[in-house]
Amino acid sequence: xxxxxHEIMRRMVAAHPADEFYFLFDRPFDPAFVYxxxxxxxxxxxxxxxxxxxxxxxxxxxxxxxxxxxxxxxFSPDSYLSLSSPTPVVMTCHDLAPLHAPGQIPWAPxxxxxxxxxxxxxxxxxxxxxSNYVNRDIEQSCRISPDKIKTVYNGCREGFRxxxxxxxQAVRQKYAKxxxxxxxxxxxxxxxxxxxxxxxxxxxxxxxxxxxKLLLAGRFAWQTxxxxxxxxxxxxxxxxxxxxYVPDDELPxxxxxxxxxxxxxLAEGFGLPLLEAFHAEVPVITANATALPEVAxxxxxxxxxxxxxxxARALQQVAQHEQLRQSLVEKGRLRxxxxxWDRAAEHIxxxxxxxxxxxxx
Length: 361
Description:
The chain is α/β, with parallel strands linked by helices and about 350 residues long. The chain has two domains: about 1-155 and about 340-360, Rossmann fold (3-Layer(aba) Sandwich), CATH 3.40.50; about 165-340, Glycogen Phosphorylase B (Rossmann fold, 3-Layer(aba) Sandwich). It contains 14 helices and twelve strands. The strands form three sheets. A six-stranded parallel β-sheet has the order 9-8-7-10-11-12, sandwiched between helices. Strands 3-4-5-6 form a four-stranded parallel β-sheet, sandwiched between helices. α7 (about 195-210) runs parallel beside α8 (about 225-235). The protein is globular. The model has no long low-confidence stretch (mean pLDDT about 95).
């Protein structure tokens, strides 16, 4: 959501210099996030890092600021809004994970989401989604009118590009002792299906005797006991590398040198790593579930995310068939043209304008 907000707002601010933007922060901010002279940043108390403070911030601090600013429209890029403010609202909903998988969220945020999230969706004047899958899910699960929901696809952040052979070898030498590797990037979280990926990698190694490693980049999130257990039980743990948090300048080269991206998440509202792999010209293995097939199109090898055998067979196919890898890369070059941040920002801007005009009638 942070990358989404950054990519959309910096483009919108630059494309519409005559418009006035107010950015609401809950703590001191990096000046790099004030994207132009037409942005006025405001810090509102309190720092909202707990559900009780979320309520305070959105139901007291934000309405008070909006009464003073008197904006034409309020844009929420991260699915929160104020129920008590009459200002017209456009809200982006990235997925309904808090409602569909509450057990994967700590108790206090879970209770907040379960109570407020449906109210936010009903209160918003217009809802933007990042995939048609999420669009339909909101309509069916929350009984929201389809006329109120619009899909605007994400784009890919800058920096992802194909690497040449010497660059790839240097990265492999640094992170994988010089051998090929499968790569995952994202939170180490139950919803991301990491335990099955580890067990599928074990199956692949047993079947093929291949030298490949599995590299996983990302912070350990809440409730990761299953991940630790799968790793501890692996017969090939010396070939599984948890990289932890990877700086933004390292992630593109780690992806660009991979044999394939392995992103077999159980549930995604979109799946940005797929786009990053398309731009890095790396083959993609992903799940045939939720929004991932919609983003992948024909440019990825789809697997059943609940079948370790399905994932293992895909690893073997990609590793052993160069022609398949080349075909997936070529299809990825075409597929990536569907997703563009500039186009997304302009679609969102036009939605803000139309919502503001309806609020004035």
